[in-house]
Design goal:
The chain folds into 2 domains: about 70 residues, Beta-grasp domain (Ubiquitin-like (UB roll), Roll); about 70 residues, Orthogonal Bundle (DNA polymerase, domain 1), CATH 1.10.150.120. The protein contains 5 helices and 5 strands, in the order ββαβββαααα. Strands 2-1-5-3-4 form a 5-stranded mixed sheet, covered by helices on one side. Helix 2 packs antiparallel against helix 5 and helix 3 packs across helix 5. With about 170 residues, it is of the alpha+beta class.
């Protein structure tokens, strides 16, 4: 099969390489770049575990080909921390006990980040709506909603989305 050259900035680092045209972005991130924080849940776009930002837009990376990200800016949950310090949403998820096994957490954080970028002061209903495309089998979502609301009420809404990648 023909291979295609791709170049993209992922979490502030530029990567170049050749990929098969059918390689999914999630597999490029995990298998080629070893950025395993982006998890593979369903491979159908239903669970949201693989959510990342691509050029400032929240996408499910199991539905995007790596070649579609060529020339783009990708931000993963792994790339949100800076200088050894957690991103405000990561910190809020920890403080509010908004994770159990942690499998869905990176996708939840990226979806929440997208919400706060567009709506820095959401209510519980808006948070639940924004996270509807992200599934968690361990929690009842209560603490996840609390974590997003806490980050927003701490003034981390709009300001925190500016850290960690393209907008």
């Amino acid at each position: 099969m023909n291979r295609i050259s791709v170049k993209m900035n992922v979490d502030g680092t530029t990567y170049e390489g050749e990929v098969e045209p059918r390689l999914l972005l999630v597999h490029y991130l995990r298998d080629r770049l070893n950025l395993t924080c982006t998890t593979v849940g369903c491979d159908t776009g239903n669970c949201g575990a693989c959510t990342v930002d691509l050029d400032g837009v929240s996408v499910k990376s199991c539905l995007v080909l790596a070649v579609q990200a060529d020339g783009g800016e990708v931000t993963t949950a792994q790339g949100l921390a800076r200088d050894g310090e957690c991103h405000p949403l990561q910190r809020s998820f920890h403080e509010q006990h908004a994770l159990q096994c942690g499998y869905c957490t990176p996708g939840m954080i990226m979806a929440a980040r997208d919400l706060l970028r567009h709506h820095p002061d959401p209510g519980p209903r808006e948070v639940r709506h924004a996270l509807a495309g992200n599934l968690c089998r361990c929690t009842g979502y209560q603490n996840i909603v609390k974590a997003v609301l806490a980050a927003a009420s701490d003034g981390e809404g709009a300001a925190s989305t500016r850290r960690g990648g393209a907008q």
